[in-house]
Amino acid sequence: MTPPRRATLADVARLAGLSKTAVSLILNDRPGSRLSDEAAERARAAAAQLGYKPNPAAQSLRSGKTRTIGFISDQVTITRFASAMVRGTLRAAKEYDHTVLIAETGDDVSQLAAAFDEMIDRRVDGVIVGLMAARMVDVPSAPHGVPVVIVNGRTPDDLPSVLPDEYAAGRAMASVLMDAGHTRIGFIADIPQIAGDPRRSVTIARRLAGIREALAERGATSFEAVGENWTTALGFAETTRLLADHPEITAFIAGTDGVAFGVYQALSDLGLHVPRDISVVSFDDEELASLVRPGLTTARLPYEQMARHGVEMLLGDRELAHELLPMPVIARDSVRTLIAEPTGR
Amino acid sequence: MTPPRRATLADVARLAGLSKTAVSLILNDRPGSRLSDEAAERARAAAAQLGYKPNPAAQSLRSGKTRTIGFISDQVTITRFASAMVRGTLRAAKEYDHTVLIAETGDDVSQLAAAFDEMIDRRVDGVIVGLMAARMVDVPSAPHGVPVVIVNGRTPDDLPSVLPDEYAAGRAMASVLMDAGHTRIGFIADIPQIAGDPRRSVTIARRLAGIREALAERGATSFEAVGENWTTALGFAETTRLLADHPEITAFIAGTDGVAFGVYQALSDLGLHVPRDISVVSFDDEELASLVRPGLTTARLPYEQMARHGVEMLLGDRELAHELLPMPVIARDSVRTLIAEPTGR
DNA sequence: GCGATCTGCTGAACCGATTAAGCAGACGGT
DNA sequence: ACCGTCTGCTTAATCGGTTCAGCAGATCGC
After folding, report:
1. Residue A210 is part of a domain; what is its CATH number?
2. Of B143, B135, B142, B89, nearest in space to B113 by CA
């Protein structure tokens, strides 16, 4: 029992015995239009009876607005992080009564440009470019009046952006360990190729700087391992190696949860127990972090909040600027508090 | 350097010295319209010069089509599975030159209905309802002419659906173990509350049936454990218990990868090695399955293909019907082939 | 009693595309 | 020379809303 065709404004007007103009004014609550309460009543009743909803295409045509924003990501649909960004975008957009058009892109720059242009051709009211790794990317220029925000990334021409506050997070995680009494800390850390290249990452360098400065300020001894890529395999290999060389280590800082998972595996193979024998902290808060035993203490990348922030820049009162969002420390069970700190040995 | 306003058909016509009609006919390659090659040339040149792209709102208004489909899911953006469904939908839609509007819904039925109506109000050309767990759900009726497909689920009124072939997958995974020579198999299996209730799952019962029938046909001995929820904790607890009672078990079938992760943890605590001492198979192929060591052999839920299939039903030649899609066996390293099958002990 | 103002409402234009209908000129047949 | 047909193009209507301008009739001031 569904009507064959959706009711139009003209249908409502006819049923209410009014003009299209009158009904439009009433349903949109235009201030200054002086229509009788009685007429308003009739119009609303007719609209309700017919299940009238305005045709968005017609509205867009007139207003030049589509009440739609575009979301483009380099790996939108591939990683669990993407989910959080999509979620944040969707929810925030909904609050502003907008819908979201989503496009997928590989790492390929030309695909991003193509997706971007397609969104513009669809006449979206704004575009969010969401990146999985906080990189520098090129984004085509948008027609005047279409705002663009980069979430978790940057552009060479400095479009408005939202980034995680990696420096603060680096300090925070180092402090979590030091506050618990750890002073000899393994650190699976530096990726010179990536940290030095904004096309790979604009934030990893800050994360590392935060960690290093906090450790240095409080006089902790750190043992750094360097890798090509932050992978589970790297965590496994470097943990094994660092512990062989420096058995005095009591805690590890892993660059990511994936690396931390490798640390766990290595410790398990060595018969060491987390957190009894070794404490571990890391960054990102992937789903994995809550699944491993014991739960991993990690600094969460606030993807959902960053996306929400981006939408608020596009549609809300928030200024189009550069913003840093805090990375909350998610405390689980991978850190042991050392009762006393023995000075010798 | 972006133009202040997008070019319209009228702009192109003016520049080309033709009427809007002529330009429209040319740019749309209408057969039967007899315009000179010379005019076509001018029209195309003018369109290119102005960067003309038709305004989709105007086209929709005229045609009644929006070239947009809606995707609604109960947990769209929350799980890694959702990503695959979104990806499949996006890619397939792109092939049909459609864009995708995505809406989020909690488990709450009323939210699904609300999201659905919102899509209809936006005049989408079709709707995909994608579910994370293959459940029975209620979907409001759509206006005539708007097709709806349920991906990984069912509706009481039997809307077209795409489901995984769980029965075949159950048989397949049991066979993987038996083909490798295993005959005494632990099986973390039955969830009576869920398997018996289509509102919870319309497929788990089939998965279990496939496993049980395959095991029975080939005379394997199975040891079943029952739980309330398929969780990592369940896998951990029941593995520990089953092995204590039945040390002769050489392999486990876990209901999901999450359960299998619990099995891994229990085996690790018991000092048992996968696959040397115990083999493990499961279902779903979450990201986790490739991350654990050794990699988990599992039957993949083909979310991306299911979504693609759904889109093809909406937009392509595929018949709107009920379809079962195969769940591919992803062979990793968690199954050991037993050389010989000792009869005693 | 008459213009000015206010009240309640309507007509028509407009957004940008598609398309049915039709028109001027060239050409062909007789 | 005249009618019919074909070619190449244009005019105008249409989709469904929003909005500018304006029109009757009532009310008011003096």
Report:
1. 3.40.50.2300
2. B142
